Amino acid sequence: MPRQTITISGETLDRSRIEQLLHDDAMLVFEDCDLSGADLSRLDLQESSFRNCVLLETSFYAANLSRTRWQRCRAGHADFESADLVDARFDASDLNNTVWRRAKLASCAFKRCKLTGAAFEDVSYLGLSFEDSLLIGADLRRMSFRKMTLVGLDFADADLSGCDFRDTVFEGGSLREAHIKDTRFDGADLREANLGGLKLLNAKLFAGATISPRQAAEIVQAMGLNVA
Question: Which among 5, 63, 88, 133 could bridge 113 via Cys, Cβ 3.0 to 4.6 Å?
Fold first, then answer.
């Protein structure tokens, strides 16, 4: 039999209230709720939905959040460290300065999200996807985007050290001032990406990538050279 669904609307919730709801073994739908600052660590919230919720500084440390759905939420500085987010979906949500360290993000999807300053250290990410999202200043070290098509991703000032972008297609987006030590771009199509701030020191990392004549001119200009 399908699980019962319980919808909670317009409430301010803490851990004790969530634990009470979990006793019914139902799928929980939170609408317009405020869970800011709540300690929800290690709770089993799999298949729950969060719609228009406020989750500022909420702790989901080591929580089971697999197959959860998050729509138009505000979760700045929330802690998802070590959480299970396999098959989770985030849409149009503010996730600035969130922590995802050691989280399980296999097949997790972020679409139209703000992830400025987010920390993705040591995550498991097979099938992880981002689309039309801000990753400005995010920590994405050593992640692989190989052979992906990246649509509208702003990596400006992000730490992309050791990332793999081989054979990746950038449809829009930005790498402006990104940190790209030991990053690989062999075979990448960067013609639609903003490469502002690329320095001569880093130019060799783009060997084998495809850029546009306009981008080539901007790189040469940034090096202080004049083309006659």
Answer: 133
Q: Which residues contact 204 (CB under 8 A, 6 or more apart)?
A: none
CB atoms within 10 A of CB 118: 25
- Do the bridges between strand 89-91 and strand 5-9 make them parallel or antiparallel, or are there none, so unpaired? unpaired
pLDDT in tens, 107-151: 999 999 999 999 999 999 999 999 999 999 999 999 999 999 999
Sign of CA dihedral 70, 53, 152, 158: negative
Distance CA 154, CA 167 (A): 18
Is 0.70 surpassed by the pTM of this model?
Answer: yes
Task: Give the whole-angstrom CA distance, residue 93 versus residue 52.
Answer: 9
40 φ/ψ sector (left φ>0, alpha ψ -120 to 50, else beta): alpha
Q: Which of helix, strand or coil describes residue 222?
A: helix
Tokens of 222: 């940034």
**How far is the C-alpha of 41 from the C-alpha of 64, rounded, in Å?**
9
